[in-house]
Design a protein that fits this description.
By secondary structure, the protein is an alpha/beta fold. It is built from 18 helices and 14 strands. Strands 1-2-3-4-5-6-7-8 form an eight-stranded parallel barrel, surrounded by nine helices. Strand 7, helix 8 (220-229) and strand 8 (234-237) form a beta-alpha-beta unit.
Length: 544
């Protein structure tokens, strides 16, 4: 019952299970680094037994992010956690992936609700208790820090749940996570569940109780806060609330609720809240999942005021309609004006203020993009800079890169796109296609070059800033489909995933092409790595 709440981030595991949120290994590593800058206590880096690529991604995060000799100076080293079902194979793979972290953790689970035990596990209570005792003890033989979760705890019979948790404690569990797996409970029920566990389970003296809630009924954050209020001291969350079905508890909502209503909870976290907006954009760009404008804390409208009454109050005192300062979550209101006459130093200072520590080489790349945009746009805003950085440095590994694009469209003649792509081998590929519109023509031309025609599931376009010279941002989500130019049947079974892509440019057709290429590059990397049987460091070459 201390006053510190650990933040356990599962964006890279539960969050990535959200349909369409697949990230490459390199992207996961970058998100893990950003989570360290954010100050999370635990990073659940993945489910190592799920695939060789997931195991490799967790291993690399453990070695680079969970190792003080390789992490950024001055940052606390987080616990690196791997998920495992209650089985020897899963636990072995989890430990293989996390063993090189300074603070490794194995998180194992088994269902305890009647419906899960009967229909999914086909086990009775005695068998579940035996499995918990055996597998938690086995995990403990590998690693000192063990987290145990009774899956679907929200629908489990409380007395049996208490018995399961006591068995897990005796077997060596150090953290007990209480998941509302299907988002079924209400806040008063979930709070009572946590209170009942604290009151009735023996041996909790040195055990951390954790909350893990889903948003199927829109109660994830409310349930998590109810559990924390009842005595839980770890919250399992994801950036932007992404996750299975309707999503997980949102990191930014839980953290800012505890901070903003400190007088109610009197609890602390180790989160550097000024990094929240940055990591929200990073995760959104990598997953291709756009943050809704009215999303709490990180939505575009979270600190926007249009109603006359609200504007009048804001002009008199910001606290009339803002319960948080936008600067506290990284929405900087600085009025440093950047334009075509600004130099590298001014750009560097502004990027540092925004949390982007670029090397001299990367700064030069960003400066060149900045100058290109400044020639077309009078004033460069912070949103423009975020888009430049995201587009230049947060792209997936590229099999093809846009080298040139020309479009002809209008009411006279057929919309035609001529596109030039540069392959990873340096070869230039050029083609032209006719389409129903300029974007359709552009995408058909890309398909012809890459010999792949994925299904476009989602296409979103919006202006990042105001005005007719605004920088345009596009996000897409694609999925491989059957056909002679797509991946083979075996690959389609293994990688039947949705891939997201993001692109930004002053020309919205160019931004659309960048976004589509980013998604296709992810699909191609997955295809080639699977065919070659190689992991993160595989060399990619083009056939033909």
């Amino acid at each position: 019952m201390n006053n510190y709440v650990k933040i356990f981030d599962t964006t890279l595991r539960d969050g990535e299970q959200s349909p369409g949120a697949t990230m490459t290994s390199a992207e996961k590593l970058e998100v893990a680094r950003a989570l360290t800058r954010l100050g999370v206590d635990v990073i659940e880096a993945g489910f190592p037994a799920a695939s060789p690529d997931d195991l490799e991604a967790v291993r690399r995060i453990a070695e680079e992010v969970g190792n003080p000799s390789k992490s950024e100076p001055g940052l606390k080293v987080p616990v690196i956690c791997g998920l495992a079902r209650a089985s020897v194979n899963d636990i072995d793979k989890a430990y293989e992936a996390i063993q090189n972290a300074q603070y490794p953790r194995i998180h194992t689970f088994i269902a305890t609700s009647e419906i899960h035990m009967k229909y999914k596990l086909k086990m009775d209570r005695a068998q579940v208790l035996e499995k918990v005792a055996t597998m938690v003890a086995y995990a403990k033989s590998k690693c000192d820090d063990i987290e145990f979760s009774p899956e679907d705890a929200g629908r489990s019979e409380p007395e049996f749940l208490y018995e399961v948790l006591e068995v897990a404690i005796k077997a060596g569990a150090t953290t007990l996570n209480i998941p509302d797996t299907v988002g079924y409970t209400m806040p008063d029920e979930y709070g009572a569940l946590i209170s009942g566990i604290i009151k009735n389970v023996k041996g909790l003296e040195n055990i951390t109780i954790s909350v893990h809630t889903h948003d199927d009924l829109g109660m994830a954050t409310a349930n998590a806060l109810a559990g924390i209020h009842a005595g839980a001291r770890q919250a399992e969350v994801t950036v932007n609330g992404i996750g299975e079905r309707a999503g997980n508890t949102s990191l930014e909502e839980v953290v800012m609720a505890l901070k903003t209503r400190h007088s109610v909870y009197k609890l602390e976290t180790g989160i550097e809240t000024t990094q929240i907006n940055r990591i929200s954009r990073l995760v959104s760009n990598y997953t291709g999942m756009v943050v809704q404008p009215n999303k709490a804390i990180v939505g575009a409208n979270a600190f926007a005021h249009e109603a006359g009454i609200h504007q009048d109050g804001m002009l008199k005192n910001n606290e009339t309609y803002e319960i948080m300062k936008p600067e506290d979550v990284g929405v900087n209101k600085s009025r440093l004006i950047l334009g075509k006459h600004s130099g590298r130093h001014a750009l560097k200072i502004r990027l540092v203020e925004m949390g982007h520590m670029l090397s001299d080489t990367d700064l030069e790349k960003a400066f060149n993009r900045f100058k290109e945009l400044a020639d077309r746009k009078k004033v460069i805003t912070e949103a423009d800079l975020e888009a430049i950085v995201a587009d230049e440095f947060y792209r997936p590994r590229e099999i093809y890169r846009l080298d040139g694009l020309q479009v002809s469209c209008g009411t006279m003649g057929l919309p035609t796109a001529t596109i030039r792509l540069r392959g990873v081998d340096g070869k230039i590929h050029t083609t032209a296609c006719v389409g129903a519109g300029p974007i359709d023509a552009t995408y058909k031309a890309i398909d012809e070059i890459v010999k792949m025609s994925p299904e476009l599931l989602e296409f979103n376009i919006h202006a990042i800033t105001e005005g007719i010279d605004a920088l345009g941002e596009v996000t897409v989500r694609v999925q491989a489909k059957g056909g002679q130019n797509t991946i083979n049947a075996q690959m389609e079974t293994e990688h039947n995933r949705v891939y997201g892509g993001h692109g930004a440019d002053g020309d919205i057709i160019v931004a659309s092409a960048k976004a589509y290429l980013a998604a296709i590059n992810k699909l191609l990397v997955a295809k080639l790595e699977s065919q070659n049987g190689k992991g993160l460091e595989s060399e990619i070459t083009l056939a033909g």
